[in-house]
Structures are given as C-alpha cells and as structure tokens.
C-alpha cells in the first residue's frame, strides 16, 4: 500500500471514494453478525466514513485504524466531538465516548493496543491493498482481532479495464485468503450502478466470516 498516495488524496481532498451516507450494504447486512448492543466493531482503513456514526447511533462501540490523521480529525469535527489525543509509539490514538481511532500504519497496530473487538467490518481495507500485500493483511487482521467475525465487502471487476484502488478481489481470492481461518458465507452480490467510476461493469459482494 502506497502511503504517499493516500496521504496526497486526503491533503488534496481528492476523496471521491468517501460516501455521503452509511453504506447501504452495511445497513442491510449488519445483522448477520448477530451482535448485542454495546459490542465493539473494528473498521480497518476507516477514513472518515459515515458508517461510524451510523454504528454509534445503533448502540455499538467503534474502533478504527486510518493512515491519514486528516481523515481522523475531520471525522471527529463532523461528528461535533472533541477527542482526547495521545501518542502510542508510531500511532496516534484519538479517543472519545465509544470511539477509538488509531492514526498510522495498520501493520503497527497490535491486538494489545487495540483491545478486544467483537466484530470487524471491512469495506475499504482489503480492496485498498495491492495483491502482494493481501495475504499479510488478512493474517494480521485475524491475529490482531483474535479471529473476530467479519463482514467483508469486496469489488469484483475486470482489473485490466480499470486500475485500482479499489482493487478487484475475486471470490476465489477471498477463499484463498480466509478459508483456512474462517467459515465463509457469501451473503449477497449487487451490481454497482453505472459501473466502477462509470468506466467498467462491477459488482460488490458481501461476505460473512466466522470462526469454524
């Protein structure tokens, strides 16, 4: 993952990937995780997603990891919340009631720092990883969260027609990355209206990953 690429995106406010509402696939499929209110949900590479205030509004606690401090600061500003900020080695911890966000490289975040999470919601992280980093990321995420169940959303499209990110992550690759760690359920797939960036046909697929 090219850190300079993502830092530049946030510095220039080139964030067309930022959705203006909670992700519809999260809203429709979140109950598949069967979580009790108060459960803690981890969002890797969360940006300033409106999925976070949506989860908070439903009574869940949230933890997230995000490379860009700009994104983290903007999220709290837009929620109207003033966080407590502290440094944890290479990471910066932004904390408020029910929310812990860690700014920095996700590979520097450990389970000891993150603490217990009850589920993972990955809409933006796996699809942001180039192919050569995905196995390392999948293993790190599973280890860091003690194989907490995951709701995973991936794009599938012809990578030759459109460079990522978001990258195309096929069903076969999801199984290759996660089948040794989890039982996989293919929940739903939907066509991306107008295609990916209006350039090529694409689908989004939602997976549920649970410990065997």
Describe the model.
- With 212 residues, this protein is an alpha/beta fold.
- It has one domain: Vaccinia Virus protein VP39 (Rossmann fold, 3-Layer(aba) Sandwich), CATH 3.40.50.150.
- 28% of the residues lie in helices and 27% in strands.
- The chain contains 7 helices and 9 strands; from the N terminus they run H-H-E-H-E-H-E-E-E-H-E-H-E-H-E-E.
- It has helices spanning 3-11, 24-29, 51-57, 69-79, 111-114, 131-144, 171-178; strands spanning 40-44, 61-66, 84-88, 91-96, 99-103, 119-122, 150-157, 183-191, 202-210.
- The longest helix has 14 residues, at 131-144.
- The protein is globular.
- The model has no long low-confidence stretch (mean pLDDT 92).
